[in-house]
Specification:
By secondary structure, the protein is mainly β. It has one helix and 21 strands.
Length: 241
Amino acid sequence: MFGSYEFGRSLEFNTIQIETYKENELYIYHRKPEDITKTISSPSNLLINPIEPVTQPKQITHDLLIELTPSVLLSPNATLTLFTTFPIEIGIFTEPPKTLELGFFTEPQTITLIDSFTLTSPKYTLYGTPSNGLVCKWWKSSTHTKIPDVNPLYEGVLNITIQNTSSEWTELTKLVFDAHHMKLYYSTIAYMNASVKVNTKTAEISFKENPLTEAMKKAATLFTLTKLPVMEKPFIMRWGL
């Protein structure tokens, strides 16, 4: 499903159909049934990637809250590795030649997002207080001790290593992830790897550049493509676990 596809190839993602074709000397991208049509300047390959799952139906937040079922109880100073799922959003990019020759110089080219969509049903929730909290994309996931079977059109796999740094039992009912720091990988499924350090009241969450297998490729990330400078630092959950 994910990967590079030549111009002119038709693709199907359950109820979504994508086609590219030449019409009246123009190169056309068309997505159905929403009837999204765009003209592109050249018959570029399409790169189909999982993207940060916070942009659909429109980007109103950069935070994803995953509600854990069942909740996770950690004994003092315990470390636990588990797996959850996360919602899939799909980005369609034009894939230019790898380099552009400019005299004696070679300049790397970037990919360009032309469309994105999801087959999931987006929902939102508030994490924290009405005055100071965060609007988050909401997702409910079972917790697993091994990699769960997923439908790659709807769900990715999130590997989470959780460390209880306190001397008390701690319960986790949810986790909040900042899309600015997500590191997505893909092969037949989409995958992320995160680290969580918790105490009785807060959690510190960061992402690892560590794919599930060597065959996985790093996905294009929208928040990187915006080229906005973002400090690489853990996200802190301050309003409850």
